[in-house]
Amino acid sequence: MGAKKRYPSRLQARLLWLLVTLFATTFVNAQNSNDSIVVDTLASGEHVYDWRKVDQKPEFPGGEEALLTDYLCAYYYDPRVYICEQGLKRNRVIISLVIDKEGNVKKPKIIRDLDPWFDLTALSLVNFLPRWKPGLLNGKAVATKYVVLIRFREIYPKANDIASVMESMLDLCNTSSWDNVWIDIEGKKSDSHFLETIDPNNFRYFLVLKNTASVTHFTSDPKYKAVLLITLKKSK
What we know:
There is one protein chain. The chain has six helices and eleven strands. By secondary structure, it is of the alpha/beta class. The strands form two sheets. Strands 1, 2, 3, 4, 5, 6 and 7 form a seven-stranded mixed beta sheet that branches.
């Protein structure tokens, strides 16, 4: 004789129905909550969420210190115009961007400008940003909208010659020898001997990366204590 089938009691059926209803309500509320913090959509159709409202905001490799002191502070040299940092109150550009679920930077957009030169420079700086750790929502990586502030600081060498400019650069690198500085000019590894041949008037801007995480992004050689990223003015 076959085993007798067991059916749930009326109480068990009601409890099961309540659990299903509760799960469905929670799921719908979660979906509605997620929809309410969607601020943009990528070309792929991927939703972009407000970084302040996700469970875990995107993280920059090396942390906030590396982001603020290394990548978001650009130095420039202009012998024609000297503007002291204290007098230039708006020496910063604010950019919104998207960190997608793979950690790539997408859709940079200026939301507070300065002037055309600084604005274009700030947008080009975004290209130097390495891959981030993406934001998380409900345990899953999601695209998030983020805002960064890029500062510009002018250097004041002793004279308008490459030796004086290089002295200022080395001082910013916090080292006494160029042997400890990884020099990158227009995306190519270079050295101080080549740097000496450049007309200082041709510098557009440069970044000084001193955070350990920032340096190891370019080289694992422990002798390097800083990375100098140089961008030159384009010839007309």
